[in-house]
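so ive been stuck on this for like two days lol. basically i have the seq below and the ligand is zinc ion, smiles is in there too. i just want the complex predicted, nothing fancy, no docking runs or whatever. if the output looks off dont worry ill sanity check it later, just need somthing to start from for the group meeting slides
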Amino acid sequence: MTAFQKTRRILAGAAALLLSGTASHAVAQEARNVILFIGDAGGLPTLNAGGILANDKPQSLFIHSMPYVGLSDTSSLNQWVTDSGAGMTAIMTGRKTNNAMVSAVPTGQAGAVASVKTFLEYAEQRGLSTGVMTNMKIWDATPAATFAHVGARKDKDEIFRQMLKPRFGDGVDILIGKGRADAAASFAKQQTTPEQAFAAAGYRYGEDTAIVRDAARAAVLRDADFAPIPAVEATIAQLARNPKGYFLMVEWDMHTDDPKKGLGHVREMDEMIRRISQIAGKDTLFLFTADHSFGLRMSGGTRGEPLAGQYDAEVAKPGVTDTTNDVISVHGGHTGEEVIAAASGPGADKVHGFFPNTRLFDVMLSAMGWKPEK
Ligand SMILES: [Zn+2]
């Protein structure tokens, strides 16, 4: 063996040792970032129908490929069937609360509530960057439960006020959602405009998601839908500049009062998660779940021909509607059965079996190596 070969062999051995060391370390490694995806009303039947409608194959979504899966109970403190307020509060704070409450719990005294610290606030307090993106209104209960504390989800003036008066850190760094006209009305009551109020708090404010691209802090409020992938790519590019890490919550509405629209959103969010999985680092915990399920069911359909065509043909029949037909039917609204929680990345292995939705708060916290405060 020449000296060169010998050196090369030693180097190769050292590299293998290093690699195996890295690999075993990677398993135990803590997460630097957490991305929480909420399919709002995206229960198992909705994922099932949404996936088949999109691909004419079962279990064909990216979500279906996530390695750790559990079933999360969504019941609230006072109801078997939750609303988004109590459902998201449980995930963000680890506490069950009454329906319509937002990251606040009843104190026992009539009408009084106490604020409960959210995972986003834990992140802000520790200097991480944070983002909230939704295709619903930014003050709606699900996004609000990441940063606001109110006893009644309809209190949008107070939710907008708290958006710019954070209890920890400097508040949500990147906000993208709808409700532009609502923001104007709410800030008018404080004798200001969203433009002035967000600028004073250090945000770039606008209607175009492209403004996120060169702003460390941005608030994009719109009244119209937007393309999710460019928006989320720009958001992650900004948040990832923080060496301490980031927390991003993305909510996509999957209510299926209009089944085609809601199931289209399943595909849209799934493509977004697939794309983000390609750009977010391996030190990122991915968690997908729903705040509650919904009364949609696959009720029929023949394999071997596109489901979308079968649904359209069915709905075109006299006396048949888009929610009452033999292919995809909808009964009522929110429902009480467990929803899927699917995870990948550091800390994802804690997602398995049946558990209460409050467990997801613990999963995120322990992935970051943080202790819950009492
Ligand atoms: Zn909801």
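The two ends are 64 Å apart (CA to CA). Residues 139 and 160 are 7 Å apart (CA to CA).
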